[in-house]
Amino acid sequence: MRARLAAGFFISGTRIAMAKVEFAWELGAGTGHVATLLPVAAAMQARGHDVRFLLRDLSAGADLDGAAEIPREGAPIWSGPPTCEAPLSLGEILLNAHGGTTISSLVSSPGNVTIHSFSPLDVQQGITAAGGDIFLSTAGPSLNATLPNDMTLSGTFTYRTGGAFDVTIGDFGTLHLPGGLDLTATPPSPYPLNITQLTFSGRDPLANSIVVAAYNTTVAKQALGSGIVEEPPKRDRRDDKKAAAVCK
To answer: Distance (Å, rounded) from C-alpha 50 to C-alpha 57?
Structure first.
């Protein structure tokens, strides 16, 4: 049994607190995202949640039915020159959209902390995951991009006893550590900063299993060559009789 209250819901005697939800996106323009997310925002608002749109263009989708009921505010816009003139990956697209390094001050959480950045990551004052694990990775720009998959770690990193501190550096990236230590390959353990797993993605594109699979498939098709000609299916004399019967 569910009873609606002004400040929330009760389900089987348990109160559900209302949430504050902000809808935002880094890419796209016009009404596409607004038209898609407006029904979701309206439904959440009808259930008592505090919702709003953060828009680069405050007029985007303003003429849609129900749009006037959802508060909207302006979102930051990266106005600098594109880092990648011809972006070749999702990471490079995002890099052009927000234009720089992902910077984090002190991060504290009672559970896990996961940061997966499509641009260089700079953790300046450490991470505390009191009851969980820490997972950090960079996997964005390609080799020729202005900003690589670098990661800079400073401060104290704390996680649960027996937990994991997993760091993955994307292709051609460098791990920058305190004291001027720069790593481009996995060193012998124990790793610095209490890291439990340190991985550097392969510098060789063929070290990527997905790329290898695609490459092997292409080579296999090329090996067939044009000399293999499929023999046309044999005709049965009864086929002509069947065709004649259909015509009648």
So the answer is: 21
- Residues whose CB is less than 8 angstroms from the CB of residue 160 and which lie 6 or more positions away in sequence, other chains included: 129, 130, 131, 132, 133
pTM here is 0.51
Is there a contact between 164 and 142 (Cβ–Cβ < 8 Å)?
A: no
Q: Write out the DSSP string of 165-229.
A: EEEEE-TT--EEEGGGEEESSPPSSSPGGG-SEEEE--SSGGGSHHHHHHHHHHHHHHHH-TT--
Q: Where do we find the tokens 């209490």?
A: 194
Q: Are 125 and 106 in contact (CB under 8 A)?
A: yes
Backbone region of residue 216 per phi and psi (left: phi > 0; alpha: psi in -120 to 50; beta: other values): alpha
Q: Are 38 and 60 in contact (CB under 8 A)?
A: no
The tens digit of pLDDT for each residue in 48-100 reads: 999 999 887 888 888 899 999 999 887 766 666 777 777 776 666 666 766 66
- What is the C-alpha to C-alpha distance for residues 102 and 117, in angstroms, rounded to an integer? 7
Query: H or E segment at 242?
Result: helix 237-247
How confident is the model over 158-192, as pLDDT tens digits? Answer: 999 999 999 999 888 899 999 999 999 998 889 99
For residue 159, give the DSSP letter: E
Q: Reduced to 3 states, what is the DSSP secondary structure of residue 91? A: helix
- Listed by start position, the domains of the chain span 2-74, 91-206
CA quadruple 124, 126, 128, 132: dihedral positive or negative?
A: positive
The single-letter code of the amino acid at 217 is T
